[in-house]
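Data availability (excerpt). The following record was deposited with the supplementary files.
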Amino acid sequence: MSTSSNLINKAVEQLSKFPGIGQKSALRMALHLLKRPEADTVELSQAILKLRTEIKFCKQCFNLSDADLCNVCKSPSKDQGLVCIVKDFQDVIAIENTGQYNGLFHVLGGLVSPVDGVGPSDVKIPELLERVSEGTITEAIIALSSTLEGDTTEYYIAKKLKALGVKVSTLSKGISVGGELEYADEMTLARSIRNRVSLDS
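Predicted structure:
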């Protein structure tokens, strides 16, 4: 899509790189920005720049954070003995938004997939085991998608954690097979957390 302005064309090109944003939507966004007060546009551009340059990974759980420790890990109201193991930071957001979980998190950053050459050491499993060995964690909820990779990762982690004396459970059925947690509705996800299934047997 082309307009009479090269600057607008460039903005449309960049905005259309966002997921789910086509060129028509990108053009509407660009034109909307032109109609907004200049201060709003400057504030948006600064927020995007800071998002890219200042966001880091929490040193404890590997969630996205503004500081060395994320707000979840720093919160005194969180149950320090409970950790929920997830694939991505999007899963942290989804679970936190249910209001049904009050523990800590551990973000793996991926799943074990032997077919793709991804082993346990390629995701944050060694860091998880070290964290459990050194900390006060007594219970772990494995909240991974019901895929081959998710099930493989769950089996490996559960075996390792049980050997360390940690109570291990997984989400109850309700999340569709192959479904990602971030796309599950809050009610279904909340119910899956409340009715989590023990893997200790």
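Summary of structural features: Residues 6-54 form a domain with the Helicase, Ruva Protein; domain 3 fold (CATH 1.10.8.420).
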